[in-house]
Each structure stands twice: as C-alpha cells, then as structure tokens.
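Support reply, case 0932

Customer input (verbatim):
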Amino acid sequence: MAKNIQSLERAAAMLRLLAGGERRLGLSDIASSLGLAKGTAHGILRTLQLEGFVEQDATSGRYQLGAELLRLGNSYLDVHELRARALVWTDDLARSSGESVHLGVLHQHGVLIVHHVFRPDDSRQVLEVGAMQPLHSTALGKVLSAFDPVAHSEVMEAERRSFTGRTVTAADEFEAMLDLIRAQGWAADAEETWEGVAAVSAPVHDRRRMPVGAVAVTGAVERVAPGGILRAELIAAVRDCARAVSRDLGAGRF
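Our regenerated output:
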C-alpha cells in the first residue's frame, strides 16, 4: 500500500482547522492544535499562502482561508451546466431587449464568454463564445469584481488599462464604483471599453449563493443608454434573467 504524504496530510488538516474554527488563528494556535512545531507549521502556512489557499492579516499576523479556495470550491459547477441553465432565459432576454446577450465567467484574470445570443435582427454579427473581456471596464467584469472575492483580488492587483476616456482606472474610484454595484445589484459599461457600445450586467449565483458568472445585454450606446441614461427596462430585464438562471441553479429567490 502506498504511504500517505505527511506534508499534504498536515496541510489538509490545517485548512480544515481554519475552516471549522475561529475566523482567524495565530501560528501558535495552529501549531498546538495540530501537534506541530512552530517552524513546521509556519513552513506549511507559508506555502499555502503563496498558493493563495491561506491569507495572513497584516495587522494581527493571524491566518485565515484564502480566496483561491473559493475558486476551487466553485469548480464543481460545470460551465456547461451554467450555460445549459441559461439557454432559455438568455434567448428570451435577447428577444425582449432586441440586443445581444452574453454569459461570462471569471477566467485567467478576465471574463470568458461562454454563451452569446445574437441580436435578433438581420445584421451581420460575429460569435464571441471563447472571447475574453477585461474585468475592470466591462459590465460583466465589474459585476464579477464586485461580487466574487477572487475576481476582486485579481482586478485590484492588476493594471487597469484605460481603453477610452471613460474607463475608470484609479483604485479609490474603482472601489467606490464596486460598492455602488454591490448596493444596486447590477453594473453598466457606457463606452468604457469600446466607443459607441454600452452594456448592463447582473450576477448569477449558485445554490450556495456564490457568484458563478454574469449575464449582460450589450448594444449601441444610443439604444442601451439614450441620452446617457440607461434604459430602466433593460436593467430590470437583465436582473430578472440573472435571477431566473440563479434559481435554476438552486440559489432560490434573491
């Protein structure tokens, strides 16, 4: 029988301890609880911290679970399931809004488009499934950055490039915008990524009420935000669609 790897067993025990006890634990508490020498415990914690599985509070020096575990925990939700649950609702949203609809998920420091419903007219359009969008300037990306702790960490640590004169890049201003998005439950992009293009997006949650993606309506700025004001019925329609997909994923009512 193959032997268990002791260092992995200790790391797993450490993660369970942090998950089941107080919100934050000091090095001495962790070492004594697991019967480890402080040096051994510190080495394991340091490795877990470098991998994003553990975070250390800068003020108290105590440890807590890291954001990377959220990403792994969400991995059970297959993107194909998310897309399958969203098919009918996104089709309805495109038909009622008259605009393109995108479904996106966090992927490699950006937003991966996993489903795209064409605008219901005869215009020439390009399928964008598989395309990547930036986190900081698109409606999809801003919603994920506001509601997903992993996306938030990534967008704040990355360079926020200015695509147009309307792109918000300053950290304080960007954080204030995310606070507003959390409060209102939706995000917008009015020519912040592409000139002449506007979008409205809302988050999709799973059965644990964790954000697993976002849905957006995208179109010409004069249709989505005529006179610089977002159409209220589009905001409501996008939020209703996101809630419907969330309910189908077991999230219940929001």
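We compared this against your earlier run and they match. Two observations from our side: The longest helix spans residues 79-97. The beta strands are 54-56, 63-65, 100-107, 110-117, 132-133, 187-190, 197-205, 211-220. Please reopen the case if you see a mismatch on your end.
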